[in-house]
Amino acid sequence: MNKKFDNNIPIYLQIIDEIKIMIASGSLKLGEKLPSVRELAQNLGVNPNTIQRAFSVLEQEGLVFAERTAGRYITNDEVIVMNLKENLATEELNKFLDYMKKIGFTKEEIIEKIKNSKRSDD
Length: 122
Description:
- It is a single chain.
- The chain is mainly alpha-helical and about 120 residues long.
- The chain is about 60% helix and about 5% strand.
- The chain has five helices and two strands.
- It has a two-stranded antiparallel sheet.
- β1 (about 65) and β2 (about 70-75) form a beta hairpin.
- α1 crosses α4.
- The mean pLDDT is about 95.
- One of its GO terms (molecular function) is DNA binding.
- InterPro entries: Tscrpt_reg_HTH_GntR, WH-like_DNA-bd_sf, WH_DNA-bd_sf.
- This is GntR family transcriptional regulator.
- Keywords: DNA-binding, Transcription, Transcription regulation.
């Protein structure tokens, strides 16, 4: 995880978001072992307490679980991951729709824009 951090958002929240995206996209697989707190802190150039805080939140949300002496792992629960993916998509879609409405597009115009969009990755 190579990340440039935004100074306006707490680093632990940015780490949480990045790990959630990696889980939702499948780049972190169900049951996969996460790097240790110390290792990830060193790789990202942050304090280990920052990583510990991020991992704790992810554990509370059920996305990560700890094995006593073996480290932390991504959940094995596919339903949790599917819910995460849906929630992330809904959040982003709502941001997009709010922005489009703010700049004056109607729902119908937004739908038309999406239908007619040309992206290089299509």
